[in-house]
Design a protein that fits this description.
Length: about 120
């Protein structure tokens, strides 16, 4: 076998090895990214639980009720009812939350009483 063929075989083996290393690194990076976003989501949910009790919360926390999703909660005041969504840092409203806000701004909100007999 000539030296040229030996070099080609070594290069092919090296390329296959590098490809396998790249695939493994990419998989690990995806796992870390998923874990980070999942952890961030968990921290956000934990933070929402104490937000109404922070000093700068403008309402009486005793009148706040948690919903969780799609809106964090409802604040009941004597003269109004407020749907509240807590956000931290650069987080944005979801599409569903924007739809809910739009329905409220359009005054398309109702109260219904349902009785079970």
């Amino acid at each position: 076998m000539s030296l040229q063929w030996q070099a080609i075989i070594v290069l092919v083996i090296l390329l296959v090895f590098m490809f396998l290393l790249w695939r493994r690194a990419k998989s690990q990076l995806n796992d870390v990214s998923f874990s980070k976003s999942s952890l961030s989501s968990k921290y956000g949910k934990m933070t929402e639980q104490f937000m109404p009790f922070l000093k700068n919360y403008p309402y009486d926390p005793q009148n706040f009720r948690f919903l969780g999703t799609p809106i964090d909660g409802v604040q009941f005041e004597n003269d109004k009812i407020i749907l509240i969504e807590f956000k931290t840092a650069n987080s944005q409203l979801t599409e569903r939350q924007r739809q809910i806000a739009e329905l409220i701004w359009q005054k398309r909100i109702e109260f219904e009483e349902h009785r079970i007999e």
